[in-house]
Amino acid sequence: MKAELKEQMRQLIDRHGGTRMSDRNTASYRTVQVHHEVLSRIIDILYEEGYRLERVENLGGRHVEVIAGAIFAKGLSPRSLRSYWTEMRYWAEWIGKPGLVKRLCTYLPAVDPSFFKVTVAASSSLSWTEAGLDIVDVIRRADGLDLRLGCMVRIGLSFGLRRRELICLRVHKADKGNFLRVYAGDGPKSGRPRDVPVEHPFQRLVLDYVKELIPKSHFLGWQQTSRGNSASLHANEDRFEKYFQKLEITRAKCGTSAHGMRAEYAENIAMLHGLLPATLGGKADQMDQADLRLRQEEVMECLGHSRVSVASSYYGSFRLTASRVGSRHIGSPGDQVKPELPDGESEANDAI
């Protein structure tokens, strides 16, 4: 039944997904890809919540309400919530029910509306360390839940990989000695490959440790579900999310999320490159502007971005006043995570 509904959704996207709702222009390949990924996940969530639609056209108000509660309970960031909710609006529009999906805050009256505001530049650090998390304790607890999860946490903190990149990483193949290669088919956004340099001895220790635990032919993600079936990418992503809820690393619980591993990496690597991030008190006049831009370009390339402007979402804007100054120093990454343990903003905010 669920497979049939997903096939109907694929056909619906094929008919309508190639046109942007905002201006009726042709949608990009990445936009269509997101339609398929997110709407498939929404169908999974509906089934998890006990709602088994027979046809995509049967989407109703109760289904929308259930999805709102379910995605919020996952502890997703406002930006991720916006992505889900935008796709819900697309679904309703495509089946001729444009007014069906209201603003997300309408379905969650107990949540402070300011929580849903999506900001581009970080005004304070989003990293785990600055959120007050004990990194070594997090790794111990992750290992206690699942050793592969512990490996993903180590790699995430050390190389700033995204969730899907972690799940799809073939660590033995990706380790090229002086850098970690993220292949085009292994999860990067828009299929854009990159090489992440090994710049600190700690990164080499982490890679060697993880390679001892993960077989050469395996992805870093789980090969099987908890029921022993072959694990799909979506099943792996669900499992990843649920484990982070168990670790209580969500925006609602501690002010950061799994994505905070990338912020942690971005801040640490920026400092290794001689740049003090704005979220840790760095100012625009700390170096020549050409050097400042070059260092930001280097960090963003490591994270898989080609635009310097994206840097502000990870470690703040130098045009803004940092809200607090952190106490970390360049040599600290190895002290934070030890491998030997076995263990268009207004429009965007209107949308949610």
Physical arrangement of strands within the biggest beta sheet: 1-2
Number of helices: 17
Uncertain regions: pLDDT < 50 for 5+ in a row? 320-351
Q: In terms of structural class, how would the helical and strand content be classed?
A: mainly alpha
**Radius of gyration of CA atoms, rounded to a whole number:** 21 Å
Determine the N-to-C terminus distance. Answer: 30 Å
Major sheet description: 2 strands, antiparallel
Short description:
The protein is mainly alpha-helical. 50% of the residues lie in helices and 2% in strands.
Topology:
Elements (H helix, E strand, L loop, with lengths): L1 H15 L12 H20 L12 H13 L4 H17 L9 H4 L27 H11 L1 H13 L3 H6 L2 H4 L4 E4 L11 E4 L3 H13 L19 H14 L4 H4 L5 H13 L16 H15 L7 H5 L17 H4 L8 H6 L2
Helix pairs in contact: 1-2, 2-4, 3-4, 6-7, 7-10, 7-13, 13-14
Can you tag this structure with a few keywords?
2 domains, disordered C terminus, two-stranded antiparallel sheet, hpI Integrase, Chain A, Integrase-like_cat_sf, mainly alpha, DNA binding, 352 residues, single chain, DNA polymerase, domain 1, DNA_brk_join_enz
